[in-house]
Each structure stands twice: as C-alpha cells, then as structure tokens.
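Your task:
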Amino acid sequence: MQSNDIVRFEQQDRIAVLTLNRPEKLNAINYAMNDRLLALLDKIEGDESIGAIVLTGAGERAFSAGGDIPQFSHSIRRGTDEAVRDFCRRGQAMTARIEAFPKPVIAAVNGIAYGGGCEITEAAHLAVASDQAVFAKPEINIGIPPTFGGTQRLPRLAGRKRALELLLTGESFGPHRAQELGLVNRVVPHADLLPAAFDLANQILRHSPLTASRILSAVTRGINTTIDEGLLIEREQFARMCTTQDVLEGLEAWIERRTPLYTGQ
C-alpha cells in the first residue's frame, strides 16, 4: 500500500472525508498512518473549500483497533528514548492536532474503537457512533498506560472515577455507554452512520466558518484553565470576530429576517 492510500481523502461539497485504510489490520495506527493523517490535516487547514472533516474507518469491522502493536513493540525494544519519540510523541501530536483543529472534526465510529482509536474519538470535536461500535481502553492488558492522550481526555469527558474504571480494567463498552460517558454525541443504526455524520457537519456549515473556528478555539483552550482564564479567552475570541464581515452579515440577516450569506471574512 502506498503511503498516500493509508488514509484515504475524499471531498464531498465542503466536507472532507478521511478514512483510516488498513482494514486487514483493523485500521491499526502505524507510524505511516499517523504521519499521513497529520499531513492531510495540514493540507485541509489551508483549503478554504473545506469547512469540516468526517473521520472514519475502512471496512465493516473497525474504526481503529489502536496502535500497531508489532511496530511499536520494536521501538520499545530499542529503548525508552526511541519508544517515546516514535510512538508516544507521534500519537500525542496527532490527537492534539485533531483536538485543536480550527475546523470541526467529526468521528464516524463504524466499529471497533480500541486504544488509539478510542483516543481519536476522545480528541475529535464531535462523534457519531454506529450501533455496532465497541470501545475499550485495553492498554493495561499489554502493560502500558494509554499514550495518545487517553489518561487525560477520558477523565475530562467522563469524570475521574468512571474513566479510571475503564482505564484500569480494560473492559470493552458499547456505543450507548460511550454516549452516556460523553465520548460520542449520537448513536445511529449502522447503515445511517455516514449520513448522520454528514447531517451534523452540514448543520454546522450553515453558520459562519470563522465563528465556528473561534468557538472551537475558545473551548479547546479554555477547558483546562480556570474559569477566569477561560472567560478571558472567550473575550479574545469575541474581539477577533467584531470587525469581520461575517458578524455584520449575521446581524443584518437577523434584523432583516433572512438567511445570512457568510463569506468567511
């Protein structure tokens, strides 16, 4: 498989569809997949024709079964420095990029989402799960803690005790439990997964892309600060919008009772 094929890229109107594409390996995340996903995110960020991303997995069985264990086990055997650099830092950079991305990223979880696959779901701004999806934090079974941010994001989403139960037992859980924990927004029949993700993306795309970006930035930056610091970030994001054409258009459209025509400026 060529490196460009390991994450498929398609564009449908203003939505980019990124598909983790190692179905024979349950879309396990090897170093090439991680790097390709980062490269595509860099490309999409600068593409004004794209306003949102739907991220899913190839095949019928898995979103992603997590990190490529045979590959990172070689890094571990070569020593701590190499394992941290090649595996841990690389995976954390990828999930941090998703979490801080200035355009909405929607995970469409079509099957197994274990380990790194679960961590991508945690990092994504929004997530829709198939009723056939299954999640787990199984890293404890191979003697490591989660390494792509799972010890940090899951407690923030689910609460400390509920997250620790999943992290310390490695037990799997279904999509409705994932929704209850705040890991996914919606659970839909398997055949409706991508249409539901597209519907959610299109609901967002009706609004100003600048405003969406400011909201994403305020939430991502503010969630781990004090309330006072978070309110300062919120004010900063509001101030950045005040002089834009999108604000003027939104206000005028509301006053005139018409649909706004946003330009992203």
